Amino acid sequence: MSAIANNQSLGSGVRSELQLYLDEIKRTPLLTAEEERELGYRIQRESCPEARERMIRANLRLVVAIAKNFANRGLVLSDLIEEGNIGLMRAVEGFDPDQGARFSTYASWWIKQAIKRALINASRPIHVPAYMVELISRMRQVSRELEGETGFAPSIEQIADAMDLPVKKVRAIRRAIRATRAQTQSATGDDDTPGLSEVVADDRYDPPSETPLQADELATLRRLMETIDDREAAILNARFGLDGRDPLTLKQVAERVGLSRERVRQIVDEAITRLNSQLTDERPSRFFRENRTRTGEPVSPERARARAMAAAARSRSAG
Q1: What is the second-level CATH architecture of the domain 130-199?
Q2: What DSSP designation does 286 have?
Q3: What is the dihedral angle through the alpha carbons of 173, 175, 180, 183, rounded to the nearest 10 degrees?
Q4: Where would I find the H helices in the chain?
Q5: What's the predicted TM-score (pTM) here?
Q6: Pick the CATH number of 208-318 from 3.60.110.10, 3.90.1280.10, 1.10.10.10, 3.40.50.300
Q7: What letter does residue 48 receive in the DSSP assignment?
Q8: How far is CA 43 from CA 86, 90, 98, 101, in A?
Q9: What is the tens place of the pLDDT at every residue in 111-146?
C-alpha cells in the first residue's frame, strides 16, 4: 500500500509501482470460510491486531478487482485502490461471522461505497455529501412519478409528502441539484457556466425572468377564483397569500373569519376541489375562451390550466 501512497505521476513509473503492489498482495493466500470465521471472532471478541492485519491483507485483491470497475471516472486506479482499502478496513471492523455470509460479500458494499464517495468528492468543487446524492436521485424519481400521475410538475409540499421529509429539507435538496447541474456544465467546458452567485441562489426571491410569467399566472388564478363563492375566495386569498400579503395559517384565517380551524380547512379543500374541477373540465369553458395573453391572442385551455396550476402550487409552497 505504501507504493500506491507514493504515486506522484502518470508515466511508466506509476505502472511499475502499481505492478509491484499487485505482485506483493498476491503473495498473501486467500482465506477459507472457516479461517474467515475464526479471524472474525478474534477481531470481534479480542480486538486482535494480528487477525485484523491478516484479514485485510488476504482481501486486498478483492479491492483491486472492484476498483477496476470504476476506472476512467475521474480518479486513477491507484487512488481508487487506496479509497477501496479504507472501505475494506471498515468492513473488517464490522464483520460478524454469525450472520453466515462470506466476508467478500459483506466487504464488497463497504469497498464500493468508499470508492463512490471518493469519486463524488473529487469531481465537485462544491462538496455535496454522499447521502445528499442519494436524496437527489430519490427526489428526481418521486418528481417523475408525481408528474406522471397528475400531468404537471409537483409542488415542494407534494414532493415532501411523498418523500416523508420536511419542506425545508426538500428545498435543500433542490439547491444541491442546482449545484450539481452547474458543476456538470463546468466540467464540459461550457462557456456559459453559471457563477457561484447563481449556484448558491437566494430562494427567498424569484429570478427577474420569472416575475412576468408568475404575475400572469396569478392573474389567471384570480380570474378563475371569481367563479367561486366570495367567502371561499377570501379564505383562499388569506390562506395562500394571493392578495399580495403573507400567507396565514389555518388558525389565523379561522380567527379572522370567525370560524373553527377545521371548518376553514374544509372550505379550503372544497374550494380547491371546485377550482380543480374547472381546470380539468375538458369542455372549452367560458373562462378559458375569455382568457387572453397580453397580446390579445387566445390562450388554449391546456396552457391556461398549466399556468393556473403552477400558480396555485407556488402559493401552496409559500404557505
Answers
A1: Orthogonal Bundle (1.10)
A2: H
A3: -170
A4: 2-5, 12-25, 33-46, 49-58, 60-68, 77-94, 103-123, 130-150, 156-163, 167-187, 196-199, 211-225, 230-240, 250-257, 261-279, 286-290, 301-318
A5: 0.41
A6: 1.10.10.10
A7: -
A8: 17, 12, 13, 16
A9: 999 998 888 777 655 566 767 778 888 888 888 888
